[in-house]
Amino acid sequence: xxxxxIVPGVDFVGAPDFDRRVFDSLIPLPDGTSYNAFLVRGRDxxxxxxxxxxxxxxxxxxxxxxxxxxxxxVSNHTEQDHSGGLxxxxxxxxxxxxxxSEPARTMLADHLGLDPARIRAAxxxxxxxxxxxTLRFIYTPWVHWPETMSTYLEEDRILxxxxxxxxxxxxxxxxxxxxxxxxxEAKRYYAEIMMPFRKIVQKNLDKIEGLDIRLIAPSHGPVxxxxxxIVAAYRDWTGDRPHNAVVLxxxxxxxxTEIMVxxxxxxxxxxxxxxxxxxxxxxxIGQLAMAMVDAxxxxxxxxxVHFGPHPMVxxxxxxxxxxxxxxxxxxVIGSYGWAGKMPELVKGALPNLKVEYLPPVVSKGLPKAADxxxxxxxxxxxxxxxxxxxxx
Length: 392
Ligand code: FEO
Description:
Elements: E1 4-7, E2 10-12, E3 15-17, E4 22-23, E5 27-28, E6 33-35, E7 38-41, E8 46-49, H1 57-64, E9 72-74, H2 80-83, H3 86-92, E10 97-100, H4 102-112, E11 119-121, E12 127-129, E13 134-139, E14 149-153, E15 158-162, E16 175-176, H5 183-194, H6 198-208, E17 215-218, E18 223-224, H7 227-238, E19 243-250, H8 256-270, E20 274-279, H9 285-294, E21 295-305, E22 308-309, H10 311-323, E23 329-336, H11 342-348, E24 356-357, E25 361-364, H12 369-388
Parallel strand pairs: 8-9, 9-10, 10-11, 15-17, 16-18, 19-20, 19-21, 21-23, 23-24, 23-25
Antiparallel strand pairs: 1-2, 2-7, 3-6, 4-5, 7-8, 12-13, 13-14, 14-15, 21-22
The structure holds MU-OXO-diiron.
């Protein structure tokens, strides 16, 4: 298998993974994914940027079979879907030096059992001349781990960004022209792994703002020919201003909570607020995470199981707490059979959210007229809060 050129002297040597359906035993991958690796050939030296997940190592092996030399291997990120092929690569090219960020040096040795003597830490901003191809290493921490860096190829104006700007998409085509067809998957990926570090991602965006970027070559999904659009999307996702939207994870047992959910959805829609309800019995948590990227308000809707929230909705609250969205307001609605502390327990699961809580609405059994009127008041209160912030 011959390496596939993306520009003269730069080849794709990665692997699509059409069949993968879950990542980290957590994240659904409806479109599979890819593990992208790139070979940069200068006049004097050759560098390999990232490798592949170990399960697709045969693809990388085939691409590199007729490659006579690799002088440098650049590891932008230590997570195994990119670094898993390093042990084989370093054995295949015994004279190659492994370059990483400073924090990655010990991580690579710890996670992959690599010989620390083979690893050299590149400084932030350091340049490496391969002969007509100059790599510049740019530390971009927390996209996705603290050690992550990006690599910029100056002459061809390509940013090898690893996880950020990536999308979990498996395809045989190497490029995407606009970003419309990848934006949903790129947002899903941002939501799942980078949203908790939103403020640092903002700083990383500032850091690359002055770069003249022609192509973004992430380590998942296609190479992006429209860098400005994906950067603009990241600016919006990481920005401090939420949208006029409510994310509503819910579940029902005997229908009472569902009645309240439907009433709330209607009430919000009538007041011009977008709503993203997710029945947690069947929801794709990636889509839930995507809705959390923008929503100004989260409403958790759950019946009471024994004394607390239904575990499936509780999971959604735990996920929201872990992802730390920019949500400004929160509320709890639902029902109970005889007693319970459901709203307090939901609130207790969300300590990381810097939100103003609106009064909960909880009905005993089937919601009565007064309960539904309270739901209407909640819709009114949410709409008023959003309007006060002039959210679009
Ligand atoms: Fe694609 Fe954080 O690894």
